[in-house]
Write a structure and sequence with these properties.
The complex is a heterodimer of chains A (111) and B (118). Chain A contains no helices and nine strands. With 111 residues, chain A is an all-beta fold. In chain A, strands 1, 3, 4, 7, 8 and 9 form a six-stranded mixed sheet that branches. A three-stranded antiparallel sheet of chain A has the order 2-6-5, with no helix packed on it. In chain A, strand 7 and strand 8 form a beta hairpin. Chain B is mainly beta and 118 residues long. The chains are: A mainly beta (111), B mainly beta (118).
């Protein structure tokens, strides 16, 4: 069982916005602003989409945005496009005992 | 540009060991840690551990710490991950990733498929 909880799947039509939630605890997301999000497509390396809750790496579209409230982080994809279809994973620093915790992943489908 | 290039696919029998390499270029190798992450068929991403390249300090996931060893060779800018006593559920694609001090993974290798089968 993953340490962070994500919905198994989220879908939307092209142009719509979708939000993926990522629920942790006060030991990880609730304490540290060190949440990152990764996009993973079959046969490819995962790609960093958001780091430190809401920052964009160079080259990542601003259609992707991140936020956090309490123990839950969220990734919003605006203006959904076919190329956004992928698995998305949240990740958080979990403290000295468990430095890295991943969510179970969310499959995004563009209808 | 930053690149991490991993070694090729491996097929191993249960109980054997595997060592995957990850050669880095385009940045100061000793200024970052290197993490290893795997994705088994039908499963999500799993963090295996990391190594601080500067001082060699490692941190492993609790469920693997008895079977995994991460090392680096700073003369060739290469990181290695060795997994011992392989089981069928170790079958996965293994990724290396450059890791910042804020524990996010900004560049990834292309992945190495390790298949464990008798």
């Amino acid at each position: 069982q993953s340490a962070l909880t994500q919905p198994a799947s989220v879908s939307g039509s092209p142009g719509q916005s979708i939000t993926i939630s990522c629920t942790g605890t006060s030991s990880d997301i609730g304490t540290y602003n060190l949440v990152s999000w990764y996009q993973h497509k079959p046969g490819k390396a995962p790609k960093l989409m958001i780091y430190e809750v809401s920052k964009w790496p160079s080259g990542v579209s601003n259609r992707f945005s991140g936020s956090k409230s309490g123990n839950t982080a969220s990734l919003t994809i605006s203006g959904l496009q076919a190329e956004d279809e992928a698995d998305y994973y949240c990740c958080s620093y979990g403290g000295s005992e468990t430095p890295v915790v991943f969510g179970g992943g969310t499959k995004v489908t563009v209808l | 540009q930053v690149q991490l290039v991993q070694s090729g696919a491996e097929v191993k029998k249960p109980g054997a060991s595997v060592k995957v390499s990850c050669k880095s270029s385009g940045y100061s190798f000793s200024s970052y840690s290197v993490s290893w992450v795997r994705r088994a068929p039908g499963q999500g991403l799993e963090w295996l551990g990391w190594i601080n390249v500067y001082n060699g300090v490692t941190r492993y996931a609790q469920n693997l710490q008895d079977r995994v060893t991460m090392t680096t060779d700073t003369s060739t800018n290469t990181a290695y991950m060795e997994l011992r006593s392989l089981r069928s559920d170790d079958t996965a694609v293994y990724f290396c990733a450059r890791t910042t001090i804020f524990t996010y993974f900004d560049y990834w290798g292309q992945g190495t498929l390790v298949t464990v089968s008798s």
